[in-house]
Amino acid sequence: EVQLVDSGGASVQTGGSLRLTCATSSYLGSFGYVGWFRQAPGNEREGVAAIQPVGRMTYYSDSVKGRFTVSQGSAETTWYLQMNSLKPEDTAVYYCAATFAWSLATPLSPDSYRYWGQGTQVTVSS
User: Fold this and answer.
1) 8-54 tens-digit pLDDT
2) In sequence order, which residues have a C-beta less than 8 Å from that of residue 15 and are 6 or more positions away?
3) Rounded CA gap, 86 and 123, in Å?
4) What is the pLDDT of residues 48-102, one digit of tens each?
5) Are 69 and 81 in contact (CB under 8 A)?
6) Do 5 and 117 meet the contact criterion of CB atoms below 8 Å apart?
7) Residues 6 or more apart whose Cβ sits within 8 Å of residue 99
8) For 9-112, where are the E strands, in sequence order?
9) pLDDT tens digits for 97-117?
10) Helix or strand (DSSP H, E) at 115
11) C-beta neighbour count of 47 within 10 angstroms
12) Closest Cα partner for 36 from 56, 10, 15, 64?
């Protein structure tokens, strides 16, 4: 089975930055997509960013475009979500997710992903 571990969440002030990390554990093969999602209390889980590791194509939600950047580490077993200009509205539990599917019609849909990290809390205060 595939295991993902996400980390890097913290409490920061408005305008601050954080880098979240998603790392693979034991798995076989390469992911088709790696995505980042968030869920605030009372809200549905929403996709914020995704990357197709082979082609390096990236996808972003309108709410984070221009502020967040998803990337792959040099080891190809680690992915990052760089979050800049953080706002209180970004407060949520953030999850990384992955799928072996090589083609996704909706890369930012939670239903597109099979494997999930445990979540890491990001809190942005004004």
Assistant:
1) 999 999 999 999 999 987 555 689 999 999 999 999 999 999 999 88
2) 85, 86
3) 9
4) 999 998 878 999 999 999 999 999 998 788 999 999 999 999 999 999 999 999 9
5) yes
6) yes
7) 31, 32, 33, 112, 113, 114, 115
8) 11-13, 18-24, 33-39, 46-52, 57-60, 68-72, 78-83, 92-99
9) 999 999 999 999 999 999 999
10) strand 115-116
11) 23
12) 64
Tokens 């590791």 correspond to what residue? Answer: 53
Neighbours of 42 (CB within 10 A): 5
Nearest to 67 by CA among 124, 116, 2, 112: 124
Tokens of 85: 């200009």
Which of these, 36, 29, 34, lies nearest to 98 by C-alpha position? 34
Helix (H, G, I), strand (E, B) or coil at 89: helix
CA-to-CA distance for 117 and 119, rounded, in angstroms? 6
Report the DSSP pairing between strands 120-125 and 11-13. parallel
Task: Give the integer Cα–Cα distance in Å for 72 and 67.
Answer: 17
Q: Which two tokens stand for residue 74?
A: 């040099």
Give one word for 54, left, alpha or beta, with left for phi > 0 and alpha for psi -120 to 50. Answer: alpha
